[in-house]
Amino acid sequence: MSCMVSANAQIQNDDIFKMPEMDRSNIRKLIRFPDFGGYHTMKCDLHSHTVFSDGDVWPSARVIEAWQHGLDAIAITDHLEHGHLVRKTLAGDFNTSCDIALQKGKEINFIVIKGTEISRAKPFGHMNALFITDANPLSTPEPLDAIEIALRQGAFIMWNHPGYPDNKSTVYPVQEELIKGKKIHGIEVFNEVDVYPVCMDWCKNMHVAFMGNSDIHELAADFYGKDAIRPMTLVFASERTEKGIREALFAGRTAAYFNGNLAGRPEHLSLLLKASIEAKTVDDGKGIVEVTNHSDISYRISFDSGQVDLPAGKTVRTTLPKQGKALVMNCLTGMREYLSIDLPL
């Protein structure tokens, strides 16, 4: 028996031993994205699904999973159109999945944002309505009516994966009118495993928030791997609350993160970079410096005479020009546009 039971096993009684070290549910991954300028950098996944539409996960499990993966907030955005059979079977309505998730969020002190997805074939496409109060009235045949109802509830409207399902990102007249009327407030440039480069120009030119989200349907650990950082929206909030997230989203203080890449406005990306790295001169004559990257984002700095990688959580001794311009190749400010910074760091 002693060979079968670990040293950490605890005697429950003569018939059973407990092995508490096997329980990993209360262990949280740390993701280090620094705060800056009086703003809190909040890690948010604002597009996720549960069994109440076409997802595989119960709402409370989706919340626990988000906490374990190092997020600060998650939005439950089940499809209005895909969940009728499931809701009938589970005797719920269009608010049920969010209500379950919100209760779990209260229990573990985690921010859950109430939302839903309004889904139609193109040209309308898919839109998330975030911060709604009641999803049921949004279940209406005309999607534009659903948008108006959501807006009356104070919703933030996000245009989801514009390139889905035909791999063509197109602004149709319906989106032109919504954007003109300030009824679309953010656009996904990263979704699940997809990147929409042209949408980065849309966010820049249309003055809407850069968004990146998982759109997760499966278990996130199964889809992305237990140690990976899922796509997310970094929200630069004045306070670590749902209210703070909402205010920042409407103000456009966001950046999208995916697979080591950031997309956002230069004023936000440059401050995030500056807060992430610390440079110390080793040999001024030769231009040798030590650069420490305190974040979990690796940066790639390109300049006229070469390129330097600044790996996450490490210090690099390298040579940098004493002055000039450089591009941060994994910080995108538009399609084929990269964050420009001044040297020295």
Task: Characterise the protein shown here.
The protein is α+β, with helices and mostly antiparallel strands and 345 residues long. The protein has two domains: 32-264, Metal-dependent hydrolases (TIM Barrel, Alpha-Beta Barrel); 276-343, no CATH class. It has nine helices and 20 strands. It has helices spanning 59-68, 84-90, 96-108, 143-152, 173-180, 197-206, 220-224, 242-251, 266-276; strands spanning 10-13, 16-18, 40-45, 73-76, 111-119, 126-130, 156-159, 186-191, 194-195, 209-213, 232-237, 254-258, 261-264, 277-283, 288-293, 299-303, 306-310, 315-319, 324-334, 337-343. The strands form three sheets. The chain has a 15-stranded mixed β-sheet that branches. It has a three-stranded antiparallel β-sheet with strand order 14-15-18. The protein has a two-stranded antiparallel ribbon with strand order 1-2. Strand 19 (324-334) and strand 20 (337-343) form a beta hairpin. Helix 1 (59-68) packs across helix 3 (96-108).
Round the mean pLDDT to the nearest integer and report it.
92
Give the name of the CATH superfamily of the largest domain.
Metal-dependent hydrolases
What ranges have pLDDT less than 50 throughout 5 or more consecutive residues? Answer: none
What is the CATH architecture descriptor of the largest domain? Alpha-Beta Barrel
How many separate structural domains? 2
Gross morphology is globular
Major sheet summary line: 15 strands, mixed
Indicate the CATH class of the largest domain.
Alpha Beta
The arrangement of helices and strands along the chain is EEEHEHHEEHEHEEHEHEHEEHEEEEEEE
- CATH fold naming of the largest domain: TIM Barrel
- Proportion of beta-strand residues: 25-35%
Overall SS class:
alpha+beta
How far from one another are the termini?
60 Å
| Residues in helix, % | 10-25%
Radius of gyration: 22 Å
Number of strands: 20
Number of helices: 9
